[in-house]
Amino acid sequence: MGDLSKIPENRVLTPPDSKPKSRILIVDDHPGHRELLCTLLGEAHFAPQSAESVAEAKVLLQKEQPPFDLILSDVNMPEESGFDLIAWAKRQKAGISDVPVLFITSELPEPEHRIRGLSLGAVDYVSRSLDIDELVLRVEHAIENFRRLTQLKSSLESSEKRALAGRLLAASNHEIKNLATLIKVSTDQLVKIEHATNPNRTDFRSQLIESLKESSSLLVNISRNIGNLVTSREGTTSPVDMTNACSQAILILKPQVAPMTLKLLPTKFINPAFSAEPHDAAQPCWVAGNRTSIMQILINLVLNGADAIHEMGLEANGALSIGLECQKSEVSVVVTDNGIGFSEGGSRDTFNAFESTKHLRGGQGLGLWLCQQLAEAMGGKLTLSSAGPGLGASARLTLKSCPAPDTDSSMDLSKYFVY
Hints:
Elements: E1 23-27, H1 31-43, E2 47-51, H2 54-63, E3 70-74, H3 82-89, E4 101-105, H4 111-120, E5 124-127, H5 132-197, H6 204-230, E6 238-241, H7 242-257, E7 261-264, E8 268-269, E9 286-289, H8 291-312, E10 319-326, E11 330-337, E12 346-348, H9 367-377, E13 381-386, E14 393-400
Parallel strand pairs: 1-2, 1-3, 3-4, 4-5, 7-10, 8-10
Antiparallel strand pairs: 6-9, 10-11, 11-14, 12-13, 13-14
């Protein structure tokens, strides 16, 4: 094996580090070559594994998790060659087809054979007579280049999805804004007629008309918020009472999620700076935000929780809650459900467009992504967590706290609803 015929003494090896070892599959029909390569690459702090034939390599590639980072294969072997291995690998699913292949030969083949290997997808050829340290560097570079290409591909795909989401939002928002304006104008006229003909009426019909007026105003503001996101304009923030916003969200959403229960939990005042008792649910919790954005996020999170309960098929026993945790520097609102939960326990704080969490009912995967954009535009953060499948989930919106305004400008919709 040339310079690889024995392990040199006092050779300088790559120092160990905290990174996970790169996994290399060595495919060679010669047992001495396999053993020596495993020893040398193991000393260089890789994690080598070997196969004596292409058939054995195929089995290892299909069952090993996580996938190998590199295949170091001989070309000429009995039955199937290295060319057969790479041609097979490129036909497989991601995780196998993406693994780079580095051919190792006793001597570099003729140009037409090198071209054949490269055309099949091999990243390079190396000779057995190669200096050991150079072999290690070739392996390191092949793995590093592959990782960079993988990251670039992932980044490009993510950028394309975000661009497509922006185009869809821009196109749909134009129509939504026009329809929302028409609804608001019509509703305002209906309210004027109702007040003119029945100025003192307070029955359910009048209350519904008033609630329709407020809902149409909210729809117009939501459309404006989406427009700001599409054009990368951050909206202004002002003091918003999260306690009031949560109360209004519950009043609006209770009929929508029935027969599931939806309740507001007692507010937790975690920091001693708040003088209120822990059970005082009416105590305001002021945040720097946009009331329309906050309402939009709360509505989305509650409806997502209702969908998760629907996937369990237990609507009658479904339970949704909204709770507030107030601290000196931040306020968190937590929406909890007893729905289907995550396939694996854990938390998420990144949401990509077109990646839906609604397994059975389907979805566009834009809801949580849009909520995250709205939260970040207000300087806040959105996270999702679950203990595991069937154990429900919690969504947490955290915003910076702020002093109360001089006058309470919060919108109270409770007088417009009858339950």
